[in-house]
Amino acid sequence: MPKRSHEWKELRSSVPLAQRRLVLKLRELREVSDRTQAQIAQDLYLAPTSLSNHFNGGRIPEAEHVKKLYKILRDEAATSSRPMPCSLSMLLELREKALVKHCGCCPVGSPQDAADGADPLPTTAGSPASMTVRRRSRRPRVRLSTRRHGILRAPAQAKVPVPLQEGDRHLTTPADAAWPEIRTLAESLTTGRSRDADIMMWSAATTLSARDVQIFVAQCRAVGLEDAADQVITNAARRDTQAVLHIASALHSSEQYADAGLLLTAAAQEEGA
After folding, report:
1. Comparing C-alpha atoms, which of 203, 233, 188, 220 is closest to residue 45?
2. CB proximity list for 233: less than 8 A, separation 6 or greater
3. pTM confidence score
4. Which of 12, 54, 208, 238 could make an S-S bridge to 212, C-beta 3.0–4.6 Å?
């Protein structure tokens, strides 16, 4: 079967060299499959935009997703008798190097030195290009007088917090709800219990209320579980139209505009599939 070639975007110059090596190897691995990126993302329980970010240097994938991607493409390569371009251990090693932060001024995945065999970053006159930092001028503080037209303000009375009735309690921000499920989800992903994590994310996406789905997604992003948040949104897109609209409204009300757009896009793809 003739091999299908893919056209890749040129990586941004801001992508660190260590992460660049990982991305290029992931692209080589992707070439063994003739399926669309959306089909591969569905097998990974990821949004197509998340998988695209991994292939274009926008985000470093989690170790569990690297392992899943490798297994899926390895099985597909065996079916079509195509060789694998690298080993799983090599991919995981490249991922670990891409996560290294070498100093306070360098982004994650910055190169160690030219001894790694990578091309050095362009410099001017043998030294890194300097960057001019402009400080924003500080505005003068304006003090408001407590007297206006000779009338004194009434002294503020101490406010005693009164708990709301049981039926009137509402969560104001995602941070107010310290859900232990998020900690359990993070532990499952860290310890390699991907099946438990998938079940938890599927249950959250398909059974929680619109408000609770919004909080679950926000807390995942707050602790760095970006792929988990995308997966919950993708799973939620498979609910009925009314539920999807309620979840999108909750995300929009919480100013999670990108998540709302991702949900509606995924729902449209599900409907057209």
Report:
1. 233
2. 47, 205, 217, 259, 262, 263, 266
3. 0.45
4. 208
